Amino acid sequence: MQRRTFLAGSLTTLSLAALNPSMARADEAVDEEFLALLTTANEAQVALVLGIYQNAADSVRTVARKGRRLVAAYTWGRSKYHHDASLLAPLEYLVNRLAELQHDDGLYDVGNLHSPPDSSFAIQDVCMIWGLLDADDQPATQPHRVVLERVLRKAGPALASGGVHTPNHRWEIAAALARTHHLFPDRRYAARIDDWLDEGIDATPDGIYSERSSTYASEVTNHCLLTVAWLRGKPELVDYVQRNLDATLYFLEPNGEVDTVASRRQDQNRIREVWWYLTQFRELALHAGDGRFSTVAKDIEKRGTGELGDFLAEVLERPELAAVLPTPKPAPTDFVQHFPSQASARIRRETRTASVFGGTDFHDIPVIASGLSTNPTFFKLRNGAAILDSVRLSPVFFSTGHFRSNGMRRTSANTYKLEQEVKVPYHLPLPKRYRRADGMYALTLDGRFYASMDFPHRPKQFRTLRTEVTVVELGNGFDVTFDLDGDETAYAIELCFRRGGTLAGVQALDAADNYQLVDGTGSYTVGTDRIEFGPGTGATRVTMDPGERYTYLGGSLTPDGHRIYLTGRTPTRYTLQLRTS
To answer: What is the pTM of this model?
Structure first.
C-alpha cells in the first residue's frame, strides 16, 4: 500500500483531483484553521472516551466510533495524543470488543439482528481505523491491526451476500464493501457494489432522495456515494451528491438546523443540525468550485456545534479535504423554492423562514408506519429565534385524525393551496348475492378500522368534510386561511412554539403547556424576535384528535413545546394572521 505523509495516511491515491482534473493540487494550500478546529475537537473527544470506553452496553457502532476517535488522535502528528502510549490499552479493549461482538457469520446486532446494513456503519469506521494505523505503521499497534484485519476479513463476505431494509442501506453496504475491498481485495465485494449501484440511485430531479430525510438519506447517502466514487472510480455518483447539497441549501435555517417536515423517516418530527454535512460541503465546494458550499462549511466551523472531532479521521484519510476552500459566496437567504417531488415549498427572507408542506403519503397509503411521511404539520414559521415549529388542524370527524393535504398547488407567486376531502361511510346491508348463512364475512378495512363485515361489497352512505388551507405570504408575515365545508362539527387549530420564549395574550388550560387564544392577538417573543398570531376564536375547548390509528393503541401526536389552540365549528372560514414585525 502506498503511504502518505501529508497528515497521517490515506487509504487511496484517488483524490478529488482525479474526479476533477482541473482542480488545483490539494496540497498547495492547507486550511490551517480547519485542521486546528478538528484537532481541538478531537482532543476533547479523546478525553471523554478515556473515561467511558469500558461500557459493556455500547453497541458496535459506538465501540467503533470510540476507537476511531482514539486512532485519529494517535496517528495525527499535531495532536497532543500523537503516539501517546496511554491510548494503546483503551484501544486494545475497544478492538477486542469489536471482535467479541461479531457473530460467527461476520455480522453484528445493532437493534436489528445479524444486520448487514447496521454492521456496515461500524465496518466503515473499522476500515478507517485499520487504514490509519497501517499508514502510521507503529510496531506498538501491530497487535491491534491483527485483530482488526480479522474482523474485516470476517465481515466482508457477509456484507457481500447480505440484504437490506431501506433505500440508504444499499449505499451504506456499498461504501463498506468499497473500503473493505480496497484494503483486502475480493471480486465478490466489487460485484456486489455494482449490483446495488445497478438498481439506480433513488434521487429525484430536484435533488431529494426517496426517503426525504436529512438523517437517513441525505447525510448518510451523500457520504456513502462519495466514498464509493473515490474508491471505485465512479465520479458520476458525485453529481447526485451535488444536487442534494444544492437542495439542502434551501432547507437550512439561520441557526444551523435543517428542515425535516417532509421526511419519511423518524426525523420528520425531530430537530437535525447541518454539522453532520461538514465534509460533504467541503468536498463539493472543492469539486465544483461552489462558493455557496464554502460558506455553509465555514458557517458550520464557526458555529462549532456537534461532534466536529469525528471528521478528523476523514481528513487524515483524505488530506485533500483540508485544502483551502474556494472563495465563499453568499448562500441563498432570500428565496421561494418549490420542491415538486415532496409537494413542499421553502420560503426565506433573511432571518424569517417558512415551510409549506402538502406531500404526506397518507392519501396513497393510509397507514401509520416507519418509512411513510405522516407528519400532520403543514406550515412552519421562524422569525429569528422565535420559532413556530408546527401548525396543525384536527377536525372532530369520526376519529379520522389531523388534516393532511393531498398535495400542494402554488397558485400565484405568494399563494399556496392545500386540500383534503374526507369521506366516512355508513355501511348498508350486503346485497343478497354476498350474504352468508354462517355470518363469517371477510375481515376487511372500513378506512378507519377492520371488522368481519365484507366492507368492499356493501353499499354506503357518506358523511363528507372538505378542507382547504390557503397560505399567503405578506410583507410582514403570512395569512393562513382555513375553509372547512360539509357536515357540521368542531375543529381545533394547534400552534406549537418551541420552548424558551414568552407567550402573551393567551389563557392557560388544564394541561401543562396548553393554552387557548380566546380573543384578540397573542404573541410569542424570544429576545427581540417576535411572532404575533390571531385573532382568537372564542372559548370553546376542542381536543386535538390524532385519529383512531393512534388512539386505539394509546398513541399520541402531541408536539413538544408551547401549544396554543384556536377552536370553532364548521362550516367556517377563518384566517389566522401570523405577523413577524
So the answer is: 0.93
